[in-house]
Every structure is written in structure tokens, then in C-alpha cells.
Fold these 2 entries.
Entry 1:
Amino acid sequence: MIYMAGNWKMNTTVSDAKELAKEISKNPIPENVEAILCPPFTHLMAVRDVLSGSGYKLGAQNICHEDNGAFTGEVSGEMLKELGVDYVIIGHSERRQIFGEDDALILKKVQKALEHGLHPILCVGETEEERDTGKEKDIVKEQLVAVVSKLKEDDPLIVAYEPVWAIGTGKTATPEQAEEMCAFIKKEAKKTLGKEVPVQYGGSVKPENVEEILAKPSIDGALVGGASLKADSFEKLVKGKA
Ligand code: PGA
């Protein structure tokens, strides 16, 4: 199965989002593809209604590590589930870097997602400096093992490998670099969890490079920011070619 997820980040108004979801969901999804749209929290209900019956799945960009109570500004797993959310992006590098999320908090979020029947998409990835100093595998392994070591074999985890230096920069990892790390993630996850997990690549994926990225044996899809905000480019990503 190929997992193609659009991370809209903090973009679009509700009306833009409805329009975009309407345009995207007109396009058929190939049989082997799971297509997922992740709008901002405030747009989830409206986008769910537009996507209804289309086969496109709804994802959220974050989840609270607790169920309810005094957590001003947070959104719980139960709230997301009630809105028809199936997937949730957890530990995106923007959450790690801008909002200070660490591996311990990210683990709790993944556990909450699973408790509420949501599929977590766990993001891992190194910074440019970490790659330049040859630490990329250590960093990715640390982020991965912090979570998978606490999960059960049948937990439905997806991992997204997103090198921080390739996000929103137009600088894509080469398909070989992406493959090398995605294969490493699969191997490490299998060692700890006892099974292979699907691994997406993320970071400046666009119609022009999606085909060569998806051709790699250890890459099972993509987590896409910028190129998911236009219906025609997301259509090409879902098809897997420009
Ligand atoms: P990008 O973002 O496709 O705009 O590089 C990817 C992501 O942050 O998930």
C-alpha cells in the first residue's frame, strides 16, 4: 500500500479548504493508494463532509497527550475520532523545533492516538548539521526507538522520514539518500517491533520527483506539504507520476 498524505500545515481558511478538498476528491484514487488530507483542526468537520464517500481519508496534524481537562488550546484523541479523523501526524519537525516537543511527549501522543483508534504517522528526521556531522542515523534511530520500543507488534504505525533540511526548502533528499534512511528505519523498527512498518518520505516531494522516490523499494508513500495545497499537483502525487 502507498500512503500519500497532504499536510496542509497552517494554510487555507475553511472556505479555501472546502474548495481544495472538493477539487482533490473529484480525482479517483488508485487501488493500492491510501490518500489522506490533513487540514488544520478548525477545518476538519467541513473537510470531512466534502470528502464523504470519496475514499479520501481525513488526518489531523497533532493530538494532545491527555484525554481531557486543563490543557488550554489542545485537542484530544476522542475529539478527533468524533470528527471522523483516521490518521494523525505526530512529532513533525515543526512541532519538535518550534514547540519544543520531545521524544517522551511524542510517545505519549502516539499512545493516545492508538488508544482512540487513530493511525499515528510518526515523523522522524535529522537536521542539516546532524547530517553534515554524520549523525543522521543515530538521531533517526533515537527518535524512532523512543516510540517503537513501547508499542505492540500489531499497533498500526506509519513512520515518515522527513530530513529537516528538505522540508519546505525545495532541497529534496536524493532518492538514494531517502531510500537508505527508509530502509534503515524499516530494519530498526523490525528489530524492535518485530514487523516491518510502512515508511513515507517527506521533504519537497512534488509531481516532478514523486515517481523516482516511490520507485525505491523501502519507500511506501510520501508526506507532502507545499505540493498538497494545489489540487492538480496532489492529483499527480496520488497517481504517483507527473
Ligand atoms: P514540504 O513539507 O513538502 O513542503 O517540504 C513536508 C512536510 O513538512 O511534511
Entry 2:
Amino acid sequence: MTDHRKIIHVDMDAFFASVEQLDNINLRGKPVVVGGSPENRGVVAAASYEARAFGVHSAMPTRHAYQLCPQAVFVPPRFARYKEISEQIMAIFREYTELVEPLSLDEAYLDVTQPLKGPALARELAQEIRTRIKTEIGLSASAGVASNKFLAKIASDLKKPDGLTVIAPQRMEDVLPQLNVKKLPGVGKVTAAKLADLGVNTIAELRRFSESELEAHFGKTGAWFYHIARGEDSRPVVPHRDRKSIGCEDTFSADITNVDQLKLELRQLARRVTERLNRAGAKGRTLTLKITYDDFIKITRSKTEAREILTEEEIFTISAQLLELTDAGIKPIRLLGLSLSGFDAERTSRRTDHQLKDAASIVATGGPFQLVFPFLLSNEH
Ligand code: DCP
Ligand code: CA
Ligand code: CA
């Protein structure tokens, strides 16, 4: 089976710790540990690469991290801030493709087979995205490029931190055989132990089993293992459609005080939001105007209508009313944003979350089976 898709997997480096270093220059270049306090038996959420040199890693008790690296700076997490940065990263991804599937705050798959803009070569596109994350946000990300999700995710991990790796189909064999089966999507702790009992720790060892043998041991998941061990993964990139809001924003190159000029900007934003709503098939009742003033103070003003807000003209009119509730015209404005929320859950298409934790449990539920393992239902093999 050949796959002609171009998939990018992007994952931020030492995410929480890097954000702390971004916001506090005193932490840069130093071992930083983000996590719960040692007194409360907290664990490490993230460790900067400087801290990792001492053996500190995620999920380790903070007390243990302190023993390994007492000179590290220990800071509590600030989830709201990580979420904010996450949204900025995802907004960059969405400029390149509608097909963005976030896996967590700091990573996502992008299907760039037909990108909305940017270089034609997926490697160059991934590099452009990494550069933008660095220059616009100030953080480093690693990316992997391949013809499917599995290989792209494996690739993004190969040259961490700040790495870019392409796994071309003909280079797959350089990487796959020695890979630990724990890296396979669908292999949790239980399955890994079961595989180990069969003498399987690497993909090369997994490949010694036929498809029917694996099915005998693992049911339908066995067939999944058979294919994934050969780098075959036809899972599509599924964008989140059950977003709570849809919107866009603009940071101006020069702050704007003039109200007429601000209204021109609102018109453009209204047009862009309408386009996005139409693409998502979403209809909302609440419009929110977001403003960042030149002193970086952020405010939002919202209006909820009794009926769905449908047209570009309606969005513009309401946003202009909301603008009057702000200091527009008095305080210079550096950013304007518009978003629509309050979607009717029945009408806006929803996405069932099928993030792979353990493929066995997903298969058992039956629901997203067809999406996750489409090739299992085909007659190709
Ligand atoms: N996280 C957490 N608890 C864990 C693992 C992760 O709270 N056990 C949080 C903190 C991480 C973030 O999620 O910064 C992203 O997790 P990753 O697994 O992607 O790890 P990092 O981004 O920290 O490091 P890497 O550079 O290895 O991706
Ligand atoms: Ca990460
Ligand atoms: Ca991650």
C-alpha cells in the first residue's frame, strides 16, 4: 500500500519549562523544573534540557529531582499561560492547513498534502513553521515529516530538541527495525508486557509474527500491529471540529488609535471569521471582541444574540457596537480579534475523540474503528 500524503508532526521542546524560560530571562540556560512541590509529594511535569542532563525527567517525584539537581530552579506550572501559547502555535499551523489535529497542548499533526500556503516541499514547510514558532513566539519545536501519522511522530522525536527529521519511504528501514515497540501507537503498558512475554521488544522482533499469529494473540489490534510494524498507517488527520469558538485576530505592525481604521480592520476580521465558520459549518450566537492595548492589557467584550449570527455584515455590525464599549479611540490598540462561540452542539459537526491510548480499548468500543483502522476493513491484503 502506498501513501502519497504529506504529514507533519510538530512537538514543542520541554514545553512548560521552555515557556518559563521565555517569560523569565533569569531562567534561560539554567536547569528548570516545572512541577508540584516536593512537600506535597508533587511530580515533575517538565524539565528543561539543562535539567535533563542531571537525569531529571517528567513524572519523577519532585523530591527526587531535587536530589539529582538541587541547583535547579523549581517553579509551579501556569496552565493558563501554556494554553495561551498553545493557541498561538495552533493558529500558525492552521494558516498552512485546515487539517490540524492537536494531540495535546504542545503537539499536533498537520496534513500538508495540499497546503493553503508556503513552500511545496513538506520539509521546507516544516522548517518555515519551526522558524515562525521561534521568531514569533520565541520557543523551539521539533518536527517530523513523513507519509503518515505514525512515521511523522517517530520522526519528530529523532532529533530533539530543535530538530527536523524527514522519513522518506525508502529510509524507513533505517529507523523502524530497532525501534522499541513501546513507541507504537496502541501499545500501552499492558500490551508492552504481553509483547515482552512473547519475546518482542523491537519492531524487528514484532515482524517475525504473521498477521494471523498477531491476530490470535491480540485480536483485531494484532492486524494493526502487523501493519504499523511495516510503517503502514492510513489513519487520517482529523481536525477538531468541536472547537468551542472559531475566530481570528490581527496584531498590527503599528498600534492603531483611529476608530475608522479600527473598523476597517474589523471588516476584514469579520470576513475571515465568516469564511472559517462556513468551512466548519458552524453557527454561533455569541460574538466576542478581543483587544490588546499598547500596554499589553487585554480585554474582551461579548454579545449574545437570541438567534444565530449568520452573515459577515451581522458580525461586523455587532463587533462595531462592541468596539464602542472599549477604550478604542483613546488608547492605542495593538491587537484586534473576533470570535464566535455558543455553537449548537447538534448542528456543528462533532469529533469523537479517538486519540490512541491503547488501540485494544478503542477497538473494543467499536465506535471510531472505521476511522482509526480503515485498512483493516479493506481487501487490499
Ligand atoms: N507533561 C506533564 N506530565 C507528564 C508529561 C508531560 O505535565 N508526565 C506536560 C509538561 C510538558 C508537556 O506536557 O512540558 C509536553 O509533554 P512532552 O511529553 O511533549 O514533553 P516536553 O515538551 O516537556 O519535552 P520534549 O522536549 O521531550 O517534548
Ligand atoms: Ca514536547
Ligand atoms: Ca508532546
